[in-house]
Amino acid sequence: MDRGHFCRIFSDRAVVVTRLPKGSLRTLAERANETAGRGDASLQTRVEYSALFDLLVRELGADPAATVLTLADEHGQPTQTGKAVETFRAAAVGKDEFFDQALRAVGYGPRRRPTHPPTTQ
After folding, report:
1. What's the angle, vertex CA 47, arms to CA 95 and CA 67, rounded to 5?
2. Domain ranges across the chain
3. What's the whole-model pTM score?
4. Which of 3, 10, 33, 104 could bridge across to 37 with cysteines, CB 3.0–4.6 Å?
5. How many angstroms separate the CA atoms of 101 and 76, rounded?
């Protein structure tokens, strides 16, 4: 899989880093997000996916100078890189799914907020 194909499979999706299992793949996604993204715990842009592609080639590929990801071996079995790509795809959500979530992470949710300003004395 070349860089363009890799970026296209995520073109209408966001990889939510917190949906990845803790471990090396989550760390790779965090690194891509910190170096090429906004540090917002999600991969959404072509630049972020391109950074993730480079990390996958360097960290999981057999040849760090390669320009493609090898997803299956000669017997058709998924490689470590192929399994990683599937893990990232499983952690990806579409725009509707992404924006359908409550904003619990920033303190908003089902709790009622006060309707009057706090009093100071």
Report:
1. 120
2. 3-106
3. 0.77
4. 33
5. 37
User: Torsion angle, CA of 111/21/95/67, rounded to 10 degrees?
Assistant: 160
pLDDT at residue 44, rounded to an integer: 92
66's tokens:
């390669």
DSSP code for 40:
S
CB within 8 A of 64, min separation 6: which ones?
57, 58
Residue type, 60: L
pLDDT along the chain (121 residues), means of 10: 95 92 95 88 93 94 85 94 95 80 55 62 60
- Residue 77 CA to chain centroid, in angstroms? 24
**Contact 25/36 with Cβ under 8 angstroms?**
no
Distant-in-sequence, close-in-space partners of 9: CB < 8 Å, separation ≥ 6: 85, 89
